[in-house]
């Protein structure tokens, strides 16, 4: 909880607390409390975050009405939110659904980064298996 929740930095990389020292939000009393501009236990779905590949794929899945369990949607949406699922930060903003989904996000994260190997699998060998999953959970043409 080093940084005020709700700060927006464009075109910068957030690195240590020096990133925000010239940001006017640092002096805004609304942001300089434990909860910032949020209410306790408001739920992560109500917290403003950077928009990236996680949110994009989540929106694609929702729009196309993938028939996956809610846990899958949640894992995709929040798997890069490392301060929460790995650092234990922002728990004061979590609602019951967030706390229930946290173990699923942690489980998914085991397969996210640093799981690559140098020996690439044969795509033709894997295609029937993965095509059957696509046909089952997200059939038809996907709207991107």
TrEMBL record:
Keywords, in A-Z order: Cytoplasm, Iron, Metal-binding, Oxidoreductase
Cofactor note: Binds 2 iron ions per subunit.
Class in the EC hierarchy, top level: oxidoreductase
SUPFAM superfamilies given in the database record: HD-domain/PDEase-like
Molecular function GO labels: inositol oxygenase activity; iron ion binding
Protein residues bound to Fe cation: 53, 79, 112
GO cellular component: cytoplasm
UniProt keyword Protein biosynthesis present: no
Keyword Oxidoreductase: yes
Protein's recorded name: Inositol oxygenase
Originating species: Anolis carolinensis
